[in-house]
Amino acid sequence: MDPFDVSVSAYFSPGKDPEDHILGFIKGCTKTLDIAIYSLTSPEICAAVFEADKRGVAVRFIFDFDNGYSKYSAWTKWIRLARGNIQVKFKSEPGLMHNKFAIGDGRAVITGSYNWTETAEKVNHENLVIIRLESVVRKFIIEFDNMWNMFGALA
User: Fold this and answer.
1) Second label for 60, Cα 20 to 30 Å away, from 16, 92, 151, 152?
2) Residue 100 annotated among the catalytic residues of the structure
3) Which is catalytic among the residues 31, 54, 98, 122?
């Protein structure tokens, strides 16, 4: 199923359903992929993001500083080592950057409680929602851009 062909769909873990849809969403991006994620440890999702970068998709990440630099973080394990053209910013002010969303090509959003981790896939009860409603996607774009302009770039 093309993740951009539906208006709203929902998926639940434990199980591979949410991760499979995140992977399909990333693979479906052709122009831009903006990700605001608190926790990312899934090697499969990291690989899909790197492939998107190699395909010429403009990728921007926003991480919470403390979680982004944890020993389990994708940043620590993969992105720092093979970043390519991926742009990364960190929220370091008080309070968490606890978002879990991605915007694909400015056309669709994935969001929900689902952390992009192996624990979310295999153990936790979490949800993932894909939204393709222009008015909602626009709000996520505005929020991502506001955070992007507010948070610090990687040194």
Assistant:
1) 16
2) yes
3) 98
What pLDDT digit, counting tens, does each position of 3-44 carry? Answer: 555 589 999 988 768 999 999 999 999 999 999 988 888 888
Question: Does residue 122 sit within a domain?
Answer: yes
Instruction: Flag whether 3 is in a domain.
Output: no
In a domain, 2, yes or no: no
Nearest to 6 by CA among 137, 138, 133: 133
- Euclidean distance between CA atoms 47 and 51, whole angstroms: 6
What's the CATH code of the domain at 132? 3.30.870.10
Residue 96: inside a domain: yes
**DSSP states of 101-125 as a string?**
EEEETTTEEEESS--BSHHHHHT--
Which of 36, 21, 1, 54 has the alpha carbon at shortest distance from 146?
36
Per DSSP, 42 falls in state -
Total count of domains within the chain: 1
Among candidate residues 17, 20, 66, 105, the one labeled active-site is 105
